[in-house]
Amino acid sequence: AQSVAQPEDQVNVAEGNPLTVKCTYSVSGNPYLFWYVQYPNRGLQFLLKYITGDNLVKGSYGFEAEFNKSQTSFHLKKPSALVSDSALYFCAVRANSNYQLIWGAGTKLIIKP
Amino acid sequence: EAGVAQSPRYKIIEKRQSVAFWCNPISGHATLYWYQQILGQGPKLLIQFQNNGVVDDSQLPKDRFSAERLKGVDSTLKIQPAKLEDSAVYLCASSLVRRARDTIYFGEGSWLTVV
Q: Does B39 touch chain A (CB under 8 A)?
C-alpha cells in the first residue's frame, strides 16, 4: 500500500537558521513527489516536485528538497528561515503506476524571530 | 496566468440546508478535482473529472454530495442536506492532463461552516 509519513507534527526554527521538514514515503514503482505549503486561511500552494533526474530539486521561495531513494525520503529544506515561512507543509506522492495522490498529515512550521 | 477560481470563499449554513460551490480551473486544464480538507488535516479527494467525465468518485458521499462539470470547464459541488461534519474547506484544483507527473494547482478554497 502507498503511504506518506511526515513524522513531525510541528517544527520550530529560529529565524535565519536552516530548516528541514521531513517526509518519507512507501510506493510500489517509481515515485513522483510533491511539496505544498498552506498559509492560514489559504489554499494549497505548490512548492516543488521530483520527477526524475537530479536528486536535489529547487522550488519556490528559496525552498529545495532532496530525493533519497535508498532512504525513501524527500525532505524539504531551506538554508535560512524567514518568519514568513511559518505555515503548514504537506508532502504528497504518486507512483508512476497509479494516478492516486497520497498526502501526508502535514507539518506545522513555526519560525521565531 | 490566472489561477483556479472558487466561490464563495466563506459560507455558513444550518444543518440540513443545501450549499453549492463553484470552480473555474486554470485555462486549458483538462483534469479537475474537488478535495475536502478538515482543519489541520491533509486534503481528501472527493471527485476527479477528466474533461466532463468522472474518473474517480469513490470517496464522494453520494447520498448528499453531487458534482458536475457539464461543459468540461467550470464545475459545481453541491451538498444537500448538510451535516455538522461537513464543516471543512472545499478545495478545487486542476492539472493539465491526467498524468502521474503533473502538478495539481489549487484554488483558495471555499470555507464551509455548518451550524
A: no
| Cβ-defined contact of B101 to A42 (cutoff 8 Å) | no
pLDDT digits (tens, 9 = 90+) for B2-14: 899 999 999 999 9
A62 SS3 class:
helix
Residue B74 has φ and ψ, to the nearest 5°, of -65, 160
Q: Is the pLDDT of residue B38 over 70?
A: yes
* CA–CA dist A80, B78 (Å, integer): 44
Any chain A CB within 8 A of the CB of B58? no
Does A31 lie at the interface with B, CB-CB under 8 angstroms? no
Cell of A1: 500500500
Whole-angstrom Cα distance, residue B66 to residue B51?
Answer: 17
Task: Output DSSP code: residue A28.
Answer: S
Q: Distance between CA atoms of B109 and B23, rounded to whole angstroms?
A: 9
Start-to-end CA distance of chain A, whole Å, equals 41
